[in-house]
Amino acid sequence: MAIFRVWISAALLSVLVFVSLSPSLAEEEKAAPAEAEPSFVLTLDHSNFSDTVAKYPFVVVEFYAPWCGHCMKLAPEYEKAASILSKSDPPVVLAKVDANEAANKELASKYEIKGYPTLKILRNGGEIIQEYNGPRQADGIIEYLKKQAGPASALIKSTEDAENLIDDKKIYIVGIFQEFSGEKFENYLKVADKLRSDYDFGHTSEAKLLPRGDPHAKLPVVRLFKPFDELVVDFEDFNVDALEHFIESASMPVVATFDKDPSNHPFLMKFFNSPNSKAMLFLNFSSENFGAFKSKLHETAEEYKEKSISFLIGDLDASQGAFQYFGLKDDQAPLIIIQENDGKKYLHPNLSPDQIAPWVKEYMNGNLKPHRKSEPTPEVNNEPVKIVVADSLQEVVLDSGKNVLLEFYAPWCGHCKKLAPILDEVAISFQNDADVIIAKMDATANDVPSEFDVQGYPTLYFSSASGKLLQYDSDRTAEDIINFVKTNRDVIKLPESPESPDSHDSAKDEL
Ligand SMILES: *[C@@H]1O[C@H](CO)[C@@H](O)[C@H](O)[C@H]1NC(C)=O
Ligand SMILES: *[C@@H]1O[C@H](CO)[C@@H](O)[C@H](O)[C@H]1NC(C)=O
């Protein structure tokens, strides 16, 4: 689902701390200039990582790569934060590891580094490892880390404390206890410690200090405040796993909102990370019947809460990336699209609020036909390399009874541009052979059927006349590709096409 995440990542870039880059893409960039100046940020490598981390109760480690632009942007902010935090009590230590360095790769893989920069919080000499989910400006880093280095749960002694901690923008969790001891309290702290980089925790002995919820609730109880849906919810099971599960599920909105408001973004990440099918309603939030759409979608989402489908409402203004990804047009909004994890999609364009529930029901009952993104089938297609679109792929490639070499490409892909003249050469060499077709499909503008595994561009597949499907992953030279086609093609015995001369030296399934 990596490609699926592209549009959401692009849309959230402004608030997301980190961006993944594939190393192959990145290696083309230049190394950063050498740095000078003594630094408050410790430089660690494979030789001294464990020993250094073991010395401190709280260390933050940035895994970076010298060529990574986001790392360079972070560097001065990280340095500034390190200099200020070095004076805090107890000191908070900031460190960095060049994860691109061959000798440090093992370290990077131990910490599951998938993109740069990635920051990890290591507690208790490295025993506890947490994701850094904070901001990337110096002030934000300092504030976030001071809180992370302090107690996992803040004591709430007054309504003033409660007002300072609990606002209507984020999730806040309060354990309300008669006394701050015993197994239930210990379990609460354990969960708070585990989830503290994602949520804020507090504890109090007086429910009446809190802004919402039953002031006379039976104690002990865990109260979760959230900026959406029922706004406050209580939970009474202090089993560690149950408590953790409650927090994760109660903090997910019934309908996630996709717009330009950054306070919604943490919930979006959860939405996109969920294994569920995703139902997304896109419309202009300024339109007159927005309220009706919202409440109808909410009702529907409530109905399917326990089923494996998650709901989102997205503002047209923020959703250009999504529209591009799905091949949708603005005049199809309001629209609802369901995407399943295997890539299957279902679409209802131009729908009204009252059509939401019946359509989702039809979907759940398995009565809808999947939607396929396709460019229009070209009217003229007489270049040596034929153009294939999603709508013509079955006919031109899979059911054609010919030997087809098909390239999946992206318009922006450099390796594809390099391959273009080579494919032309291959196509021209087979020009007088009616049984061989060389073709290409823009995989960003057309849905790729599931029998093809396209993880990068270009991807080349060969579909033989008898339907054998092979991926081509040898050298991208005309000679090698031509040989591959000759070796794997099937001979088609049609009265009007005589057997080709190469058929004698090629391995093939006779038709
Ligand atoms: C770890 O080793 C590297 C390379 O020898 C060195 O540059 C760095 O200063 C060392 N860091 C610490 C904290 O000793
Ligand atoms: C949404 O509607 C408002 C008001 O009608 C309009 O100004 C705006 O351009 C629309 N946005 C999009 C993306 O169509």
From TrEMBL:
<dbReference type="InterPro" id="IPR005788">
    <property type="entry name" value="PDI_thioredoxin-like_dom"/>
</dbReference>
<keyword id="KW-0256">Endoplasmic reticulum</keyword>
<dbReference type="GO" id="GO:0005788">
    <property type="term" value="C:endoplasmic reticulum lumen"/>
</dbReference>
<dbReference type="GO" id="GO:0003756">
    <property type="term" value="F:protein disulfide isomerase activity"/>
</dbReference>
<dbReference type="Pfam" id="PF13848">
    <property type="entry name" value="Thioredoxin_6"/>
</dbReference>
<keyword id="KW-1015">Disulfide bond</keyword>
<dbReference type="Pfam" id="PF00085">
    <property type="entry name" value="Thioredoxin"/>
</dbReference>
<keyword id="KW-0413">Isomerase</keyword>
<feature type="domain" description="Thioredoxin">
    <location>
        <begin position="346"/>
        <end position="490"/>
    </location>
</feature>
<keyword id="KW-0732">Signal</keyword>
<feature type="disulfide bond" description="Redox-active">
    <location>
        <begin position="413"/>
        <end position="416"/>
    </location>
</feature>
<dbReference type="GO" id="GO:0006457">
    <property type="term" value="P:protein folding"/>
</dbReference>
<keyword id="KW-0325">Glycoprotein</keyword>
<comment type="similarity">
    <text>Belongs to the protein disulfide isomerase family.</text>
</comment>
<dbReference type="InterPro" id="IPR036249">
    <property type="entry name" value="Thioredoxin-like_sf"/>
</dbReference>
<keyword id="KW-0677">Repeat</keyword>
<protein>
    <recommendedName>
        <fullName>Protein disulfide-isomerase</fullName>
        <ecNumber>5.3.4.1</ecNumber>
    </recommendedName>
</protein>
<keyword id="KW-0676">Redox-active center</keyword>
<dbReference type="InterPro" id="IPR017937">
    <property type="entry name" value="Thioredoxin_CS"/>
</dbReference>
<feature type="signal peptide">
    <location>
        <begin position="1"/>
        <end position="26"/>
    </location>
</feature>
<dbReference type="InterPro" id="IPR013766">
    <property type="entry name" value="Thioredoxin_domain"/>
</dbReference>
<feature type="disulfide bond" description="Redox-active">
    <location>
        <begin position="68"/>
        <end position="71"/>
    </location>
</feature>
<dbReference type="GO" id="GO:0034976">
    <property type="term" value="P:response to endoplasmic reticulum stress"/>
</dbReference>
<dbReference type="InterPro" id="IPR005792">
    <property type="entry name" value="Prot_disulphide_isomerase"/>
</dbReference>
<feature type="domain" description="Thioredoxin">
    <location>
        <begin position="26"/>
        <end position="150"/>
    </location>
</feature>
